Amino acid sequence: MYAHYERSQDYGLGWIAVAHKDPSASTLTFDGAYRPLGHDSRDMAFFNDGNSAWLVSSTDTNTNMNIYSLSSNWTVVDSLLVQVNKAAYREAPAVVKSNGFYYLFTSRAAGWLPSQPQYISAQAMGGPWSAPVDIGNTATFSSQSGGVNTLSSGQLEMNSDRWSNNWPTKGGANRQLMLPISEGSAGFASYHHYRTVQYSDDITTKGQGIYGVQSGRILSDGKPGSSSAGSTNITVANDGIQNDPANVFVPSGVPFWYQIDLQNSHSISQIDLTTKLVQGSETFYKYNVTGSTDGQSFTLLADQTNAVDVGFSASYPTSTQEFRYVRINVQSVVNNVNGNAANWAVGINEVTVYGN
Q1: pLDDT of 216-256, one tens digit each?
Q2: What's the count of helices (H) and strands (E) in the chain, helices before strands?
């Protein structure tokens, strides 16, 4: 067992604590608490592939990330294997091996607030590791990158951490999101948010143990968009890309509306809004969603004026009426850290409309 060890009064030690239990023993044996090879250690992950074992640790006050080889009995940090995510300020490491590749998933250090998730991959723990890859969406769907599990079906899933009760502006009880992970070739991975996920660890048939239940088909990608606050780069707001922080439409002012013409009328089942994150001044948006058949008269579909979801929010209309135009009406942008207006931080990374 490897744990992050700190004094109760501060966060200054940066030690690991190690304990183990032999199969025949009834109690744990304490193996010590220390800085591994003299390096401070914050968030960490222990990983073994059945033979060898490693410790992955955020170090240099979360600036870099070290991968250590452990002793043959896994109880001692033996050597520094490689340093990864240099000067990237990553934390919450989670390691998994699948289809010949090791994946290291991490979160951008941001306290309790949502942040940009990434992963790197390699065919050996010593590397060479890939360049960092942005995954999911820019705010981990209003959570943080978390632990990764392998199901009996061989599929992977992430339990991302939504620390909403610890946010400066609280957003309800803490909880986890289950994000099914899809793998491609050459160490590629992706995941998405679903309102409902079906899974069973009793299913051993390859590829059949977990799947997301999408709220209809995506109607909005590439459809004409417009706004009351300018049109520069407006096409990126519904181009299907929500994991690139640089892919953002910046309205000229707040309040404003952003509208998608679906070109045909549809029953709307879900609207996702992914918004720009500014490190240290993470924001939430007070807005509502309206729909129209003619672009003139609008009906309320969802009210998010009391929500405080940081970086991402999903709306679920109950109306069975069909609409051609879907409009996001943003009333204000609020800094979750201090509660102040943050119109200067406005930006839409992606609006996704689902329906039939």
Answers
A1: 999 999 999 999 999 999 999 999 999 999 999 999 999 99
A2: 0, 25
Q: Residue 148: which CATH number?
A: 2.115.10.20
Residues 207 and 229 grouped into a single domain: no
26: containing domain: 2-213
- pLDDT tens, 265-318? 999 999 999 999 999 999 999 999 999 999 999 999 999 999 999 999 999 999
Residues 192 and 68 in one domain: yes
- Predicted TM-score (pTM) of this structure: 0.96
Please report, rounded to a whole number, the percentage of residues in the chain having pLDDT higher than 70.
Answer: 100
d(CA 60, CA 35): 11
Q: Are 193 and 141 in contact (CB under 8 A)?
A: yes
- Specify whether 11 is located in the same domain as 126: yes
The torsion of the CA quartet 171, 179, 158, 92, rounded to 10 degrees, works out to -40
**Spatial CA neighbour of 67 closest among 24, 127, 144:** 127
Query: What count of other Cβ atoms lies within 10 Å of the Cβ of residue 72?
Result: 10
Boundary of a domain, candidates 213, 232, 262: 213
Boundary residue ending a domain (213, 242, 270):
213
CB < 8 Å & 24+ apart, contacts of 96-103: 96/47, 96/148, 96/149, 96/150, 96/156, 97/47, 97/49, 98/150, 98/154, 98/156, 98/183, 99/183, 101/186, 101/187, 103/148, 103/156, 103/187, 103/189
Residues 58-87: what's their mean pLDDT? 98
- Please, are residues 308 and 169 in contact by the beta-carbon 8 Å criterion? yes
Residue 352's alpha-carbon distances to 51, 104, 149, 220, 223, in angstroms, are 44, 28, 28, 6, 11
Total domain count for the chain? 2
Q: What does the DSSP 8-state code read for residue 235?
A: G
Q: Is the domain of 162 the same as that of 52?
A: yes
In angstroms, rounded to a whole number, what is the distance separating the alpha carbons of residues 16 and 42? 8
For residue 123, give both structure tokens: 């065919």
